[in-house]
Amino acid sequence: MAGLRQNPISVILLGILACCVFIYAADQVARYARYADLQYWARQIEKGKPVETKTLDRLISDSYKSNIDKECQSAFVKPFLTVLLANMDKHNPSVDYERWFQAVQLTDTFLQHTLSCLPTDGNLWARYAMIRQASAEQPEEISRLLSLSQAYSPAEENALSARYFLYNRLTEASLASAAAPLEDDLKILCSSMAEKLRSRLPAPNARVSKVIEKLNPSCPAIGGSPDEHRFDRSRSLQTVF
Fold this sequence. Notes:
This protein has helices spanning 2-6, 8-34, 36-46, 53-65, 74-90, 97-117, 122-136, 139-152, 157-167, 172-177, 179-189, 195-200, 206-215, 233-238. It is an all-alpha fold. Helices cover 72% and strands 0% of the residues. The protein folds into three domains: 1-34; 35-101, no CATH class; 120-241, no CATH class. It is globular. Keywords: Plasmid.
């Protein structure tokens, strides 16, 4: 203490540091309070609980009013992305194409923002590949996005599951273009370390089954019944955390 009294500059610097820490803490508390409702509902969606369309609409509107598109902290952008994906899944393009397309565009735009904040999150790259496949499947683009996802999260369960779900949806041309990431993912899925994950995934469709048979004929069965490739699309999209 005597040293500090003899050095007023140190006292000033410590005071400035204390003020900065206080301001940052106060800002964080305010932001968590602002998005508390969003985080709560995102957790409900992640648990597979149904959420009404009007609730999703309110959450999206309130979040944009709170400038969610200016946020970059994963604690806020990931819950909002979960809500956007749930909202997209609520709309059927065969019933109301315009509403569905608007939801896809909204999700696509925010995913690009989220990736600019968290560019090394392989799970997010997998979600972006899903959105691009849903709106306009282009084999080269899908392959590039899947490769990025795999490069950043080669064995992380959420990312690996998302890529597997997407392989089951791809056209033959896109699946051929994504042969490299597909084969690498199947090597992991067929390994002993993925035993529990295999039991939670749907069975592969005919195209993916052919790749498995060629790559590793002794690969343990993935999923249950042959019809399980008609997986829960909403859950595959919404698991973001």
